[in-house]
Write a structure and sequence with these properties.
alpha+beta, ten-stranded antiparallel sheet, nine-stranded antiparallel sheet, 47 strands
Length: about 950
Amino acid sequence: MDHNAQKGKIPFFAGFVLLLMLLSISCSHTQQETIEALSYSPSFLELETMPLSVPETTQGYGREYELLGVETFSTINRAPTPGFLLLDAGIFPSNPDDYWIVGRSQGESEYRHYYSTDPENLKLKANGHYEVHFTYKVLETPEKGFEVIFYSDTGASHNDWVGDSIFITEPEGSQGEASFTARLKNYPDYQLLMNIVRKGAIAVRDIVITDLETGKVVAEEHGDAVRHGHSLFLRGEGNFSIKPSTIIEDGSSIFTKGFSRVWTNPEVMTIPKDSIILFEFDYKVNKNINNREHLGWVRLFLESDTSTDRGMINVPGYGIQEGHYAGAVKTGTMDGTYILELGIHDDVEIEFTNIKLSKQIPMQPAPDLKPFSALYPRLGDFFTAYGEWVASDGSGSAQGKTPWMSLFELEKKLAYNDVLLALHEITSTNDPAFAVRMRTQNPSILLLPSVNTHTFWEGDEYMQEQMPNTLANAEISFIRGIDPDWILTTAKGKRINDTDGVDTLLLNISPFCPPNSSGQTYLDYWKETMFDLHVGDGTWDGVYLQQLLDRGNDLIKGISYKTKVDADYNVNQKRDETPPWIHEMTVASSLTMVRSLREKTGVNTLLIPGHLIDPILAPFCNGVTIRNFNWGWYHKDGKKEWFGEAQWSHLVNRVWELEDLLLDPAIILLEATPIEFTEAKREPLESDYPLNRFALGTALLTDSCYEYDLVDGRSAPFYFDELLVASNGTSTVDISGKGWLGKALADTEHLSSNEEVVLTISEPIMLGNRRTKYVELFKQKTKETESRQYTIELDWKILETATIHPNLNISLDNTWIDYYPLSSVLQGSSGHVTFHTTVPDKQLMSCMLNMGKQGVLEVSNVKISKSDSGLYRRDFEHGIVIVNATNEDKTVSLRDIKGPLNRTNLRHIKGRLDTVTNNGQMVSGDVTIKAHDALILLAD
């Protein structure tokens, strides 16, 4: 360097430095203001390590059922003795040898009445002197006590009470006899009233009331009375008759001949608020001339306003001659008289009987969750639509001239699964009996309804019309409670993604979200609403979390490439949010959501997000669903088609990584779909067979559940040859073929040979921000005479949160073919990458590492090698799977097929559908597996 020349430039350089310093101070000041405007606590890093606070008493929610009434239309029914009344907290005995009248309260109000005399039919004298005697046993220790009093409405209005009464406070298991005497006041409307104060349960019998002035018994109840006649708790109208049943013995049925309806009698049957009511009956179809899908309807409504209603599933009719209806509905939180109605259409004739009405009672704690131990292939279903819609036409994906199948047939297929995820959220309010129907067929099935998290759908015209209906479904109930100020806007106040249509709107999930009139932010509202609508009833095993994001929402314009974006999370009307800030805040909010729900619901509630998640979220969740997991593997450019080996490796590696991080029971569902959409699809195409086989083979390399949807989450389950196999090796459609591979005997092994290292880089490489945004790790033209697999391995760490996922891009002859994205954008994240890509002979292969606009990445321990690889193998009790995850056909030796366990009696499945591949033949030599295909064999 010419030092003298340098000296001559000092005055100019000094001025330049001074200018830079001033700019730096100015920029630093601006940056500091931005940091203060966007600062919040706790950060995602703090939430990651902060201990959970789950009370020991909060261990999840189960369920049991309390029978409210049965109607077989027999000529006699158990009922209170004339002169007595069963009240809302009471249960009258129905079994022949049971005479105990039960009162039970969960604390819905301070005083719950369960039994009384009827002042209309049993007149107690004003100023009378009476003795009361009864037998009792305490079923549940009372919170305060059990009270028996003489009560007068007139006296109560004057605050003039009879002082003598009984108040039982004994603990559970206590029993005995109780009596008291009382002098009534000068009022003509007294009744004996039996109450529960707050929580508790008691049973009473042998109630005797004696007039002490005459010495005569004026009333007695021994719990053994019967009442003659039909329809103890039902009323009805229409064209029907009651005749001896052809469905049950020693009972009668209603036979309809036209429009008919029956409904609960509110004078006899009190339906409690904020409860799940199960409604069941047996029926036969005698006439359905128009082949109706639905024979009738069932709904709940308020007596004071019949338009305030909530429907159950309709009465199934298509393809059904007889069946058992089991529906349920969640009553509202508002006070009022609830009535349940069953209506039958005028052009059908049915017989129905054995009507049962039950109340679902949450149990706490729920039984401990056991490790997920389903046999392979593990079956799961990403089932997003309401069952009736799918049975009809695949919710629009399988339209036809007739319904696709009966609801009963659909649910039989669904019950084969080990887990059903993403049930439409309205199922929680309008069909919680879906859980009953599924568990009746498969007691171990896991069921999770879908819930919104970061976004919501503003709804179509019907949903907007239903907003005033206080009994609208769960989807509408959730939307109705969203404060307009919680919807994310631009700095100028325009709602993001609002196109004046039916749109997905973003919610302000940040700590800057303004509170509503009740002091709740959106995250507060979300936790309480999700619990009330979906968890607290004990219906489900957990919830499926839609859009639980681990980076900023892609609906925010520029989130992946701009320095700053227009999403006013901090509500300061300034465009000051950066993508990295949004990514970190989004993960912090997602962590807050799962942590708060976990702390409220307990460790036995499954929380499963609806997509691949950042590893930072995994320790708080029980699984993930990866939708269309095979779709991104296949590429087409004109006539050229190829398979993305790097993307395949990314999926498998991510699943293996999450299996080690998730809470037990860990459940990952892989949903495969066709590459191209086909309308009105009710049966698989021939192209679906190899796609399913390869996707299933991939899933079997992991511990995931699997499904192949004919279209998408609206499709009914379809069971390919390899999913259900009978003990004789033949494909079946019967549930007996479920789990035919048995348990996994070992982890997956990668069959690789002839490895040759072509590049190692041990020194760290830094990318991002003011550094280079990309680096070419490797570029070389192969000299091979045949194709080889190149394996790329490296360690990585995010030093500053990135705008997008850094990724490794693979090119052949300067044409991009594949990429491998890193699993996180978040500062502090790290991991190991390993994947392979097939390089044909004499082609130029390059591997480029790319960063986005912002963020800093460090990679180290880079190793690139070539080998003969890409085959993966796993052993199961009754078979093996070998997956060819490359772009070329691979021949597998008999030795490798047998594997380290030296498997014997190797044979193909005998298929129902793909009889060419699944031909039932023995395997006695080498086998060639086509590119991106799998071999699934039976073996001893």
